[in-house]
Specification:
The chain is of the alpha+beta class. The protein has two domains: 229 residues, 3-Layer(aba) Sandwich (Peroxisomal Thiolase, Chain A, domain 1), CATH 3.40.47; 153 residues, Peroxisomal Thiolase, Chain A, domain 1 (3-Layer(aba) Sandwich), CATH 3.40.47.10. It is 35% helix and 26% strand. The strands form four sheets. A nine-stranded mixed sheet has the order 5-4-6-7-1-8-13-12-11, sandwiched between helices. Strands 3-2-14 form a three-stranded mixed sheet. Strand 4, helix 5 and strand 5 form a beta-alpha-beta unit. Helix 1 crosses helix 2 and helix 9 packs across helix 11. The structure holds 3-hydroxy-3-methylglutaryl-coenzyme A.
Length: 391
């Protein structure tokens, strides 16, 4: 049975900070951000966008009535959940009006969570042919103002409908994961910004890719030259290239050029949004497919490297399905990125430091000047989050 991604979409808040503006304000050479790190713009969510609203906003455009009746499983991968107990998936289940006899769970391992969800969904569909699963990766990446990680923040969500006979990407069975308990990036429960050992995290990422690739190529018998593109988890647009370049060293110029060209296409959305943690790898896939000019064909092999600090990594492969290009939301994606509000430094810092109310009582929330999204967090009353739909 062929199983994989039948539909997919992403959402990012409609407010961002330009990174040249940020660099100049911080007294840093803008080339460090735009060339050295490879980031141009960074999504900055208002307090009315959270893991739930972003996940629901990413999912809504791809689901029809048949999907809502057939989705049995909703998995949200996130490391910025909004409750230690109740899952964001249960809120999203309600907001999207998915049939009641579904299970809704949240899974966590840093940026790896959505891949864990995807693999769970694949196994679920294998055991329940004809049914569907909704996999979401939704996060807000925060290191803090004036930190070295500041330029690698971001926010957004991806949504993927997983089914048999998928219309975009068939996911193959061989995949290799790896776990090693390290502290390259982590966030204790009492903090709302991450702690990171930046250089070590870069090294761990590359080591995970190289080690897993060796095992994956042994188990799958695939060589680098079999792939038309590799998509990476992208905390910033330069990161995947640091992992890709060493494995291209012994490849022909033609293979190397193709993989590097497609790598650049896969980074475009990240460059303009920033790190969206769990959804990042799948944002790279959407960036690649939306930007490609009809060179990728049905049955082309694409490699995927998922990495979550702490650390868990996985490499798997997928093949494009005949007619996949007809099922992409390219125009909608580009419009979303192009029609955002460009924040001033003062607005960025004010939005970044604003906190949700934590006290008893009823707290209406409004950021209507900035937040134009369909679903948004509208109030917190007696510690319960309430969401509204903009008509
Ligand atoms: P930094 O110390 O600010 O930057 O940290 P740097 O000094 O290392 O410079 C970065 C690059 O800019 C270097 O290039 C410089 O040469 C270049 P590279 O050596 O990397 O090729 N540069 C310039 N280029 C042009 N003109 C200039 C200039 N100046 C310098 N004037 C770092 C950068 C990314 C480490 C930091 O922002 C950070 O800690 N970010 C957060 C951690 C992170 O993203 N780690 C990535 C791997 S871990 C991961 O992916 C998991 C994660 O997503 C979390 C999860 O799993 O949940 C983060």
């Amino acid at each position: 049975m062929l199983i994989g991604i039948d539909k997919m979409n992403f959402f990012t808040p409609n407010t961002y900070i330009d990174l040249v503006t940020l660099a100049e304000h911080r007294g840093i050479d803008p080339n460090k951000f735009t060339v050295g790190i490879g980031q141009s713009k960074m999504a900055v969510p208002t307090i009315t966008q959270d893991t739930v609203s972003m996940g629901a906003n990413a999912s809504l455009p791809i689901l029809d009535a048949d999907d809502l009746n057939k989705i049995d499983l909703i998995v949200v991968g996130t490391e910025t959940g909004i409750d230690e107990s109740k899952s964001s998936a249960s809120f999203i289940h309600q907001l999207l009006n998915i049939q009641p006899f579904a299970k809704s769970v949240e899974v966590k391992h840093a940026c790896y969570g959505a891949t864990a969800g995807l693999m769970m969904a694949k196994d679920y569909i294998k055991a329940h042919p004809g049914r569907k699963a909704l996999v979401i990766g939704s996060d807000i990446s925060r290191y803090g103002l004036n930190t070295s990680g500041e330029v690698t923040q971001g926010a957004g969500a991806v949504a993927m409908l997983i089914s048999e006979n998928p219309r975009i990407l068939e996911i193959e069975d061989t995949s290799v994961s790896m776990t090693e308990s390290i502290f390259d990036f982590w966030r204790p429960n009492y903090r709302d910004t991450a702690i990171v050992d930046g250089k070590f995290s870069n090294e761990a990422y590359v080591k995970f890719f190289t080690t897993i690739w060796e095992e994956f190529s042994t188990r799958s018998s695939y060589k680098i030259a079999d792939f038309k593109a590799f998509c990476f988890h992208l905390p910033y647009s330069k990161m995947g290239k640091k992992a890709l370049l060493p494995v291209l060293e012994n490849e022909s110029q033609e293979v190397s050029d193709l993989l590097l060209t497609n790598y650049e296409l896969s980074t475009d959305y990240t460059r303009n949004i920033g790190n969206i943690y769990t959804g990042s790898l799948y944002l790279s896939l959407m960036s690649l497919l939306d930007s490609d000019d009809n060179t990728l064909k049905a049955n082309d092999l694409i490699g995927f490297f998922s990495y979550g600090s702490g650390a868990v990594g996985e490499i798997f492969s997928g093949r494009l399905v005949e007619g996949y290009e007809k099922h992409l939301l390219k125009d909608e994606h580009q419009a979303m990125i192009n029609n955002r509000y460009d924040l001033s430094i003062e607005e960025y810092e004010a939005i970044f430091t604003k906190e949700l109310p934590k006290t008893d009582g009823i707290h209406p929330l409004s950021e209507a000047k900035y937040d134009k999204s369909h679903f948004y967090l509208s109030s917190i009353s007696e510690h319960q989050r309430h969401y509204n739909e903009r008509q």
